[in-house]
Amino acid sequence: MGPPAMAFQALTLTPLPFSLHSSRRRVRVRVLAVAADQTPPPPPVPPSEPANSPNRLLRELAQRKKAVSPKKKHPPRRFILKPPLDDERLTRRFLSSPQLSLKALPLLSSCLPSAPLSTADRTWMDEYLLEAKQALGYPLAPSETLGEGDDCPARHFDVLLYLAFQHLDPSSERTRTRHVRNGHSRLWFLGQYVLELAFCEFFLQRYPRESPGPMRERVFALIGKKVLPRWLKAASLHNLVFPYDDLDKMIRKDREPPSKAVFWAIFGAIYLCFGMPEVYRVLFEAFGMDPDDESCQPKLRRQLEDVDYVSVEFEKRQLTWQDVAAYRPPPDALFAHPRLFRACVPPGMHRFRGNIWDFDSRPKVMNTLGYPLPMNDRIPEITEARNIELGLGLQLCFLHPSKHKFEHPRFCYERLEYVGQKIQDLVMAERLLMKHLDAPGRWLAEKHRRMLMNKYCGRYLRDKHLQHYIIYGETVQDRFEHNRRLRNPSTTSVQQALHGLAYCVYGKPDVRRLMFQVFDFEQVQPKAISHWVRPLLKPVTVPDSLSLGNGRLMMLNSNSMADSFPIRTVVCNQEAISEPMTAQLAADFFSPFLPALLSPPTSAAAKTRPTKNHASGSSRQEGKMSSLRNALPRRAHKERSQPEARKKFGLLEKHKDYVVRARAYHIKEATIAKLKEKATFRNPDEFYFKMINSRTVGGIHRPKPEDNKYTEEELLLLKNKDMGYILQSLQSEKKKIEKLRSTLHELDNKPQNKHVYFAEDREEAKEIQSRIGQSSNMPGFDNIPSRIKKKTASSYRELEERKQRLQKLEKLYADMALQKELKKPGRKRKLKLNEDEETDNATSQPVYKWRAQRKR
How many other β-carbons are positioned within 10 Å of the β-carbon of residue 163? Predict the structure, then answer.
């Protein structure tokens, strides 16, 4: 772009007088000023256009826009600091928020939008909400007309259903507003755990004998993120989620996240307004999910034979979703969820009633967990029966699969663990929603993950010292108790099983009590010093002025140090603060001053001169110590040898040798005890086929000989299969021999033929010899490398070996064919050979002759 045109439109030569003050003389200077206008002149107007022509007006308007200075660039919004809300505005904002409008329904109130809906929100609801309600099977009337009063949760269904469909769309300004964006994310955060719990309860009651593994596969096949767009399309809701895009033509990363968020948020809204039965209706009726579909079946696996009984209501029938959704417990029911309890706790658990764990460990576990809870039962026998079932359920929660699972697959905590994991996630999600009203769903999901992250190590259960009551199998008990990689998942499973049992027996409030009061998942309760730590901490009185002698601390001696018991963390409450300072706390307090206090008084030269420590082989300054424990004198323990009088018995057994011998002894002792127990409880009427198919020879069971295991027809069929294999190998060997022969030309063999030539004189004989030499000059192996010679020699050896193998296979095949023919019915006889024929055909096959038989 060239420089602007310079137009000299006004040129003035007006003299401008400037007076310069000087002490000597006065000079007048004349300056010529030139004014230049850099604005380009307007283009000449064609004479054909009139003054009021539209084209002329548009051209002049464009020229004016060019002359205006450009807009100033504003800083991006993220750099603009908004003034903080004062207390009055913040109070007004929260008081006008719909989240604080419902006091009787705190969970529903926390999921409402944080600000009233705008006109754009109401426009979308008027245009599309009827279509969504019709697809889900709800009445088209506004939800504000349902029920009486604001405490009816169904009155807020329209608002929550609107938020459920507002996934974050960058092209829509309405979905990017704060109250819509946060409201939608909070709904899908709740809805994912609602779906997991709904399917967990349904499949546990539908398949009472199945392990949780196939159930998880069914749940993934029904509500995995890959199939959620298909369910939305089946319910005709895809046009509301993707109004401008074709669902079938979208790629996965654009199709699956919005579908997943909307699907979860829909069920979060339904759960808040109508409860769990309506969740089942929408899943199986509106979306048409079929748990018996072929695509939802789990992969085939070896199932353990389950011979134990199930409850009468599950026997010889398979519950449908209508049975699960419409079930209401009777007024005098033992549990909050009776059918779910019967699906998780098998009736056969009554055989464990009165065992050692029931008498010894159950009261301690119930005391730690605060069981049994006080209940207002009309009949006292109901309370007693509930407490008995609760004790059996607690024993099942601590029953590790290594104990009885392979004989009785349901006598372990797996099913209670499955339902406990889902109810634990849902209770924590509800807690976070009610606690953080202004937080978005993604922040809540991360908070949820971090708060339940410790469930993978069973930390809260071990804080209550309940891991000692887990019932392991005899073969794995030592490994699980001393290996944290095995112990931590098992303690986690027990903790989740306890939550599942609390949900089945007492309902969701008891799960909240266990999580936030007993186990303290949020870690907000003060921790007192344990009763077994307090006697080990001996009080030490710390004076105001410490008396130091020879530069050493004289107040702490070896008797006041808690060296024998390592203390990891002591968090004191108000009661512990008023106690005198302990030795461990004093040592922690004076640890920065230990190097100076423990060093002996030395000269300045001795302080700077390093000394050699011959015991450790390292140079260090004298008096430097890592802790106070190293300052105390210790007794040097030496290894004792075998006394002289007992030299004949060999080396003295050390402790590690005793440990190996003791473990082997206890393993044998446990094996003998287990065999005795099995022999004691053996049923004298039981029968196994091995009782008649085997016998004891010298104390060892020998199976019954199976001489006539196969019939003649089966033996013939087996020999036919063997003949087919031999024939196949024979043909394969022939092909390999032919291939080798085609590549090997045997060039190193000299010709063996001889020819006699006759010559009349010497000249003719020389001519014939020269001609024969030229014609018989064949290439040899003289100039060929040794590597190729070795390969050629190995190929020749392979050829000879294959020829020998072919001869053996042909002989074997002929023998088998002969044996096969001899097995066939019909009279035959072996022909006798003469003496000359016998000597010539000593290795040949025998000859048989069949009697002529007339064929019908």
Answer: 26
Beta bridge partners of 703: 694
d(CA 326, CA 335): 17
Read out DSSP for 466-481? Answer: -GGG-B--TTTHHHHH
pLDDT the model gives residue 84: 62
SS3 41: coil
Per-residue pLDDT reduced to its tens digit, 821-843: 887 777 888 887 665 555 455 55
3-state DSSP call for residue 712? helix
Averaged over 378-388, what is the pLDDT?
Answer: 92
Neighbours of 4 (CB within 10 A): 10
- For residue 738, CA distances in Å to 5, 724, 799 come to 96, 21, 9
Phi, psi for residue 692 in degrees, rounded to 5: -110, -10
What 3-state DSSP class applies to 686? coil
Structure tokens at 620: 């260090």
Least confident of 58-72, 216-230, 324-338, 712-726: 58-72
Which pLDDT score is estimated for 590?
Answer: 47
pLDDT of residue 760: 85
**C-alpha 621: how far from chain center:** 52
Output the pLDDT for position 64.
Answer: 64
Residue 788 burial by Cβ neighbours in a 10 Å radius (0-12, 13-18, 19+): exposed
Q: Which residues, listed in sequence order, are joined to residue 10 by a DSSP beta bridge?
A: 35
Higher pLDDT, 313 or 708: 313
Query: What token pair was written down for 168?
Result: 């974050």
Mean pLDDT, to the nearest integer, of 123-152? Answer: 88
C-beta of residue 336 within 8 angstroms of C-beta of residue 506: yes
C-alpha–C-alpha distance, residues 407 and 346, integer Å: 14
Secondary structure letter of residue 352 according to DSSP: G
Helix (H, G, I), strand (E, B) or coil at 275: coil
Pick from 245, 75, 221: which is nearest to 169 by CA?
245
Structural tokens at position 201: 């309860």
Alpha carbon distance, N-terminus to C-terminus of the chain: 112
Whether the pLDDT of residue 119 is over 70: the answer is yes
Give pLDDT, residue 191: 96
H or E stretch covering 262: helix 252-274
The answer to whether residues 229 and 236 touch, using CB atoms and an 8 Å cutoff, is no
Residues 6+ apart with CB under 8 A from 219: 196, 199, 200, 203
Residues 767-777 pLDDT 10s: 888 887 766 55
Out of 239-243, 528-532, 570-574, 636-640, the most confident range is: 239-243
Question: pLDDT tens digits, residue range 344-370?
Answer: 999 989 999 989 999 999 999 999 999
**Section 79-92 average pLDDT:** 65
Q: Specify which residues 464 forms β-bridges with.
A: none
Beta strand 34-37 with 18-19 is: unpaired
Q: Is 140 helix (H, G, I), strand (E, B) or coil?
A: coil
DSSP calls for 361-407 = THHHHHHHHTPSPP---SSHHHHHHHHHHHHHHHHHHTB-HHHHTTT
Question: With b meaning 16 or more CB within 10 Å and e meaning fewer, what string describes 824-840?
Answer: eeeeeeeeeeeeeeeee
Outline where 436-551 has alpha helix (H). 441-451, 459-463, 477-482, 484-505, 508-513
Chain centroid, CA 730 distance in Å: 53
Q: Distances from the Cα of 298 to the Cαs of 125, 559, 576, in angstroms?
A: 41, 65, 56
Q: Which two tokens stand for residue 321?
A: 């979703």
Q: What is the DSSP string of 190-241?
A: HHHHHHHHHHHHHHHHH-TT--HHHHHHHHHHHH-TTTHHHHHHHTT-HHHH
pLDDT of amino acid 549? 39
- Which residues have a Cβ under 8 Å from the Cβ of 776 and sit 6 or more positions away? 751
Helix (H), strand (E) at residue 700:
strand 700-703
Answer yes or no: are the C-beta atoms of 416 and 345 closer than 8 Å: yes
